[in-house]
Amino acid sequence: MRTFAMSLAATGAALIVGVFIYFVYAFILPSLAEDPGGEGAAFLPILVGFIAVFGVLGAASWLWPGARRRSWFWILHVVAGILVTLMFGSQITFSLTHPADAQGFIPTVLALLGAGLAIGGGIAAFLDVRRGRETWTRSGRAGWLMTALSGLIVGAVLTSALAGSASSAGGGVTDAPTTTGVVTAENTKWLPTSLQVKNGEVLGLFVINKDGFAHTFDIPTLNISVQLPANSTTAVAIKPTAAGTLEFYCAIPGHKEAGMVGTITVQ
Ligand SMILES: [Cu+2]
Asked: How far is the CA of 264 from the centre of ligand 1 (A)?
C-alpha cells in the first residue's frame, strides 16, 4: 500500500519538477535567446537534470507498485532532495532574504518545500518499508505538521506578493538631482561599468534593466539597494558623501561575478 510518507515524497518531487520547468521558461530560455553562451547555458543542463531525476522519482512513486516494497527507492528521494538544496544554496538564501522579489521568492519557497518533502517523506517512507507499518499518518502528528506547514507557506507567499508592491531602499536621498546619468543591465552585465560625479552633486541615475529577469542595483556604502524588475527603468538618486570610488553591483548570486559590478568615481 502507498503510505502517507510516500505520497509526501512524491508530492515533493512533483513540486520541484513544476518549479524547475517554470525557472527554465521564465529565466533560462529568455536569457539564452539574448546570450547563447551566457549564464543560462551553464544552468540549463543542471535544471533539466533535476527535472528528469525528480520526474522519474515522482512518476515511479505513484505508478510503480514495486516502489512500495523497496526501501532503497525512498533513499533516492532523500539524496536528490539534499543535492538540490546544496546546488541552489546561494540562490535560496538570496531569495528568502528578498521576499519583495516575488518572481524569485515564491518559486524558491515552493522548491524548498518540495526538497523538504522529498527528504522528510523519503526518510519516513524508507522506515515504513523497513518496519512494515506507517511511520507518519495523515491523522497523526505528521498530518498536523503538514497542515501547519501549508499554512506557513501560504502566509509567506502572500507576504511576498504584498511586499512586491512596496518600494525598496533607495538611500533616503530627497534632494533634486543636479546631474543625470544612465546605466543599463543587459545579458547580466552593466553598461557602462564606470560613471563620474562631482562631490556635492546629486546624481539622478536611470537604471534600465533590459533583461527578461530581475536584477538589483546596490551601493552598500550609501544604503542603496533597489530591485530592478524585468524590462524596467528605475530612477535612483545618488548623493556621494566624500570624494573617492563607490562600487555598484547586482546582489543576485553569481551576477556580480558575471560582470554586474562597476564604479562611480566621485571627484
Ligand atoms: Cu543581476
From this structure: 18
